[in-house]
């Protein structure tokens, strides 16, 4: 497996330029680029060609553009805006060599029937798949373990991806999201590893299902998630993709970015080494 860094981990105490410098320094293989904030900020003073040049001249490479948010069950106008954003992200991803674009489901207080959620998600992901295929890029659906997210368990997300049935559409398996809404380990054991594109590693304080928020995340191995079970399962099934550390801990944003990025790697490797996962 390869080690990846998700920029959310230093959301408030770094920027893309610094993240790249520090991730290269600490030996990460990949980075997930935040397209909502850090990439636009970078492009205020740099070009996408400069970013591509950085990746060409350094070890670290771009794994994913993260993310196209709230892609399903939208109004016609909102959907069209998302499609235009997706097309723009495809162009940028192609230029820098990113393999994936992450797609995040709608979060809403509105009650939507599961059959309507699935219908919309399948339709939109199929549309995204067709657009992305022309660029050789894959779409990674990331379910979110929160009661208000329309796709919030591994089983629900996997069913949608299976129904889409496109080779360039798969999942982000985020350990926090898997834990937060009580996803079933049996669903993971039955899944095809080829449908899991990215593994997000993280941990969390031990709050009840349905009450966890991203801010409850802690360094890998220092919380209540069954990381051993999740990672051992995907390893046994043949997953050999990127393991990306993603945290949103407010107190970690008070650290120097160098310390946060270094600690993220060290704690991730401690978990993986224990499971004899080679990086």
Question: Describe it for me?
Answer:
- This protein is an alpha/beta fold.
- Helix 1 crosses helix 10 (257-274) and helix 5 (114-133) crosses helix 6.
- It has ten helices and ten strands.
- Strands 1-2-3-4-5-6-7-10 form an eight-stranded parallel β-barrel, surrounded by five helices. Strands 8-9 form a two-stranded antiparallel ribbon.
Task: Compile the SSE list and pairings.
Blueprint: E1 2-6, H1 16-25, E2 30-34, H2 38-42, H3 48-56, E3 61-69, H4 76-96, E4 100-104, H5 114-133, E5 138-142, H6 154-164, E6 169-174, H7 175-180, H8 185-190, E7 196-201, E8 203-204, E9 217-218, H9 227-236, E10 242-245, H10 257-274
Helix pairs in contact: 1-10, 5-6
Low-confidence stretches: none
DSSP E strands, number: 10
Portion in helices: 40-55%
Order of helices and strands: EHEHHEHEHEHEHHEEEHEH
Average pLDDT figure: 98
Taken from the alpha-carbon principal axes, the silhouette is globular
Distance between the termini: 5 Å
- Rg (C-alpha, Å): 18 Å
Features:
18% strand; alpha/beta; 279 residues; single chain
Short description:
The protein has 279 residues and is of the alpha/beta class. It has helices at residues 16-25, 38-42, 48-56, 76-96, 114-133, 154-164, 175-180, 185-190, 227-236, 257-274; strands at 2-6, 30-34, 61-69, 100-104, 138-142, 169-174, 196-201, 203-204, 217-218, 242-245. Helix content is 42%, strand content 18%.
